[in-house]
Amino acid sequence: MSITVAVIGAAGRMGSTVCQAVEQAEGLELVARLDVGDTIDVEHLGGAQVAVDFTVPGVTEANVHALVDAGCDVVVGTTGWTEAAYERVREHLARPEAAGRSVLIAPNFALSAVLAMSLAARAARFFESAEVIELHHPDKVDAPSGTAVATARGIAAARAQAGLAPVPDATQTDLHGARGAVIDGIHVHAVRLRGLTAHEEVVLGNPGEQLTIRTDSFDRSSFMPGVILAVRQVGWLEGLTVGLDAVMEM
Amino acid sequence: MSITVAVIGAAGRMGSTVCQAVEQAEGLELVARLDVGDTIDVEHLGGAQVAVDFTVPGVTEANVHALVDAGCDVVVGTTGWTEAAYERVREHLARPEAAGRSVLIAPNFALSAVLAMSLAARAARFFESAEVIELHHPDKVDAPSGTAVATARGIAAARAQAGLAPVPDATQTDLHGARGAVIDGIHVHAVRLRGLTAHEEVVLGNPGEQLTIRTDSFDRSSFMPGVILAVRQVGWLEGLTVGLDAVMEM
Amino acid sequence: MSITVAVIGAAGRMGSTVCQAVEQAEGLELVARLDVGDTIDVEHLGGAQVAVDFTVPGVTEANVHALVDAGCDVVVGTTGWTEAAYERVREHLARPEAAGRSVLIAPNFALSAVLAMSLAARAARFFESAEVIELHHPDKVDAPSGTAVATARGIAAARAQAGLAPVPDATQTDLHGARGAVIDGIHVHAVRLRGLTAHEEVVLGNPGEQLTIRTDSFDRSSFMPGVILAVRQVGWLEGLTVGLDAVMEM
Amino acid sequence: MSITVAVIGAAGRMGSTVCQAVEQAEGLELVARLDVGDTIDVEHLGGAQVAVDFTVPGVTEANVHALVDAGCDVVVGTTGWTEAAYERVREHLARPEAAGRSVLIAPNFALSAVLAMSLAARAARFFESAEVIELHHPDKVDAPSGTAVATARGIAAARAQAGLAPVPDATQTDLHGARGAVIDGIHVHAVRLRGLTAHEEVVLGNPGEQLTIRTDSFDRSSFMPGVILAVRQVGWLEGLTVGLDAVMEM
Predict the structure, then answer these.
(1) Contact assignment for A216 to B225 by CB distance below 8 Å
(2) ipTM of the complex
(3) Across-strand partners of D183?
(4) Residue C1: is its pLDDT beyond 80?
(5) Domain(s) of CATH 3.30.360.10: residues in chain C
């Protein structure tokens, strides 16, 4: 018995890659491709049990509500969600007519990136020092990356919970700002280099030893194993889940 | 209230470093230093609650039994233990007069090395490919390192449990053996380079993405945070525990 | 004044990428695209000063002779050349009617790969230890890569010239072959990992220090800067040149 | 025939390590150890052909002049030299009575660090992007390191000479300064991590490819091969030479 899947935003760059990935995945069957102009209802969804939304911030929330109403579990890769929007989805899912439906919204589907963040937080409490270096292509407009900020926050929270002192740093002179950004006490550095895509390195240090956790995303295909995993697992979740971690059971 | 500590093998390279580390650690008090020729009994242990044994394979088992008899919890860094010797310690600890005593034997106290192994096993099931590269000083007589073999076995076990297919490898021609050792289906490479101490890199790959976990031990001091952690936690364990993982609660 | 360029094998994967790169390069003008079935002569070359051949081993030698006869300088990226074929090109270029013509044949146009090899050979004589690790996608059928073998040979030659002793290696036990291939005395390791393309790392070690030179080729576009450089410089060469190094003036 | 060597500052940390290294080096003979309070003259230098000065900024210039007067060639590892002090040494060496004497002053004797700088400058003109990441122990008071600044300047100079455009960087938002220091147009990042000593990584990028040059100094012994090389070669130089590069013939 395959899981039947609909892709919303099927004509976009990510959406079309998702369609390919679903078609190639064992145990999944692509039954509908919807894009701008298509109505999201039972008729157009072709009996899909799971819908994957890779559209745009302006429509993704309405899509999710409509997909739940049509009886789908939903996996969302579109960005731009706010806490208020999450809350509205939670309320929508709490209604009796949505019983058994689940929605998974993930800002990042790259397994190695999600794992790096999770492993770094796990390891952080055992180390005196921790810093984050993210490296991206030079066309990126913001620094540091959202993933790097989230990674630093996760490390800082783990350190705080373990009662660690601030990271040691004797720097007295840094006229040009070489020590980078400081996010919750953790230094974060952003490299921009032609040829790169999306990379992150977490370095953790103790007297005489270092632990390095590095993730490299070389292209868009790196998101597909995470999307496929989410499609397979979303049916086991309940209500709203944010972040891929939940289905990675870590 | 400090934890009182005795060091057995206190005159050796590791033992003397342990003495220093205990003296500097907050909440620990060094109350006895024993070495060759010293009797291990209540009198000479100076009221130690925990004893740390860094001696030699020929005497460590007898030391552990004597230390348990003297009422100590024991942390052991000496190598050369066999499964039969573990069993004899288990039986010794199961006797009514040893009630409440615990023994922790760890082949490796470097937190980053133990973590790398544990994190690699955790991440392995999400990746199609996995290989291990270990790098050591050129005076090491065996290859690959015991840690690399253990890491490969941990990865292989995690893959098997997740039902993964063998790692992909189209190699048809490898006249000189460049693909390295194969341990439980995982390729392991050993580099020997002047200037290095003990290092290990685990590389995990999926289409379009890579996760790298690397550990560097630069010198003997890298074992001390693990020893101190073990001294602090051994009292919470029961019976015999093998491996530092247990006290890292991961 | 632009340099006018013809691409031979213009419909192939590499050829079509070269066409794009030439069109986008400042100071270069694409004047002819030839492929299977097109005659290589003055008429079809559209006045090209430089021709770039990315065809197949079976026809590239005949193409080069025809291009020289048509008055072009030639840049060749096709593989499969033998020393005998090189010699026939040298003789062809030595004829009076070929005066001023030049041919550059390069097995690898990735600047970073060519540089890594050259820099490693330059640095090698200052280090006691040296090893090579190459990493590729798991569909590669041979190990180690030709580039890694060439790199190891270059390092070995530089060490021999400097009178260095063999690399130190105390390994006595290596049942599974973890120490990898030995090429001219240099250990070479081959990793095969899904997600990777073509990568090489040279590690050089002395007491207390390490130098690492690493090259990553993420995709086919990595060859274009080298091709464009060759097109710009081939006119300054004389006769036959093998390898991109010559135009990199290193 | 050995080269006879005197060490000035022989009781200091670096000086005593130099004494050991000279004693172990083939073809070198340690004939004098001078320190605070010893007069630098022919009598106390024991016939040394080469003197190595690892003292302190306040006395090194006077030492060098006295050593030249005593007929020695001089290798200097003490820091704190100014351009004016260099000029006074040049004038001192230009006098007829100093004919044939040479002085080599090097801010850094770690071969891998000097090589990394030199190789990075050599490679820089072939790449669209370049950044520098230096990593040190957390007790260092200044950031970025002098070596990183020198490396960035060397890269910038090579790019300028090759007529390269500024490095691409679309960053519009960097509230926390994650993009680091900018030295002559090259971004420099400084990491401070317990367990590290002195490390530097230069990353160079083009479409689809990356070249990385990394140097690791694990301890003080890493300076000795450079010092020994300088002692062997200083006699072949003339006048004043600044930087180890000259004797590395690169």
Answers:
(1) no
(2) 0.87
(3) D186
(4) no
(5) 111-218
